[in-house]
Amino acid sequence: MTKVSVSLLFTFFSLVLSARAAWASETIDLVIIETLPVPIVTESRVEFEKELARIMPDHELNITIYNAEGSEIRAKAILKELADKPAPDLIVSAATLATRALNASDDFLDVPKLFMVVSAPVEEGIVPAIGAISKRNMTGESHVLDAKVKLDMLEGVLKASKPDTPLTIGLVHSTYPSSSNLVNQLLTIGGQYKNINLVPISTPYLEGDAGLLEMTDRITDILQEKAIELDGYWLSSGPLAVASNLVKKVKKETGLLPLFAESIAAVKEGALIGVVSEPSSIGKSAARKAKLILEKKSAMEIPVVKMDTYSVAVNVSTAIQLQLPIPSSYLKLSKEHVYQ
Question: Which pLDDT band, with edges at 50, 70 and 90, does 41 fall under?
């Protein structure tokens, strides 16, 4: 009897160990489609991969990365190619155009999908409202603050200087979806603010590195024409927010500085204030969401939400130059992101 019991126990533990070994060696196939290779997208994706490997140490992650090179058409072509291959366990889209193409595709309705670095999931039709659930097996987090919060912050700075008239601020943006969506939100409520007068300044979105350079030149030319009418500008989200040396170039050609920027790099270069989610926060938060999706094998029951971690940045040299005192509460929030 004892021999039989020992034998049964040995068999039982062998099965348990075999099951654990199989679980530990389970491969998870992930596809990541990036809209374009700009820092916020690339760095968020790198942080996502690192964090997912850290929180899922017993799994082998097989990650395939595609880049749509700033083109929705290219993103759709990538998805068409993927439709002819075995379905991955999860598809991750980074930034708006790749996410738009993925959400519109009927080839992956049974595959869970996760987006990151998307500012306006409601305007993109992913969900009817923040906190709602997508009907297309997709979830994710918006990485930007509400327009009202940002306008409140800028109004707080301007009010402290007690200007005689509202400051006229050019809303610099391209027709890239996240950029134009944010500007529309700002314009809708901008009239509620006593010290802010918003004026849209736009350029068509152009794909690729050459396109970004041309957009930078066009915006600089427009600002140069309107410089006498403006007190500063607002650098909206999208490719222009991460364009190299845009702030320096505009300042050199026009003397204008951003009063608000959707990029910490722009605050370093001279923008007065900015509030953003950093790539490390975006990537890590998306990884935790991916783990939950993989455990559920679905994104159907996971609502689309806004991120809850943001960084405030201020440039004290710009504040002094423009004679706009930064409230002490903003400096406390900025912590390591106070520049001069």
Answer: very high
Q: Which residues pair with 140 in a beta bridge?
A: 115
CB count within 10 Å of CB 184 equals 15
Distance of alpha carbon 333 from alpha carbon 209, whole angstroms: 34
Rounded to two decimals, the pTM is: 0.86
Tell me the residue type at 266.
A
pLDDT digits (tens, 9 = 90+) for 258-291: 999 988 889 999 999 998 889 999 999 999 999 9
Contact at 8 Å (CB) between 126 and 99? yes
The span from the CA of 139 to the CA of 279, in Å, is: 18
DSSP letter string, 212-257: HHHHHHHHHHHHHHHGGG-SEEEE-SSGGGG-TTHHHHHHHHH---
Using one digit for the tens of pLDDT, what is the confidence trace for 161-176?
888 899 999 999 999 9
* Helix residue ranges per DSSP H, the chain: 2-24, 39-55, 72-83, 96-104, 147-161, 177-190, 208-226, 246-254, 264-269, 279-296, 316-322, 328-334
Residue 19 has pLDDT above 60, yes or no: no
Q: Which single residue is written with the structure tokens 């021999």?
A: 3
138: nearest Cα among 304, 307, 308: 304
Q: 3-class DSSP state for residue 275?
A: strand
Residue whose structure tokens are 């930064």: 326
The domains found in the chain, sorted by start residue, are 2-142+279-306 (3.40.50.2300), 147-276+311-339 (3.40.50.2300)
Identify the pLDDT of residue 164.
Answer: 87
The encoded tokens of residue 102 equal: 């993925």
The count of residues in the chain is 340
Q: Which of 233, 285, 236 is nearest to 262 (CA)?
A: 236
Residue 301, Cβ density class (10 Å: 0-12 exposed, 13-18 middle, ≥19 buried): exposed
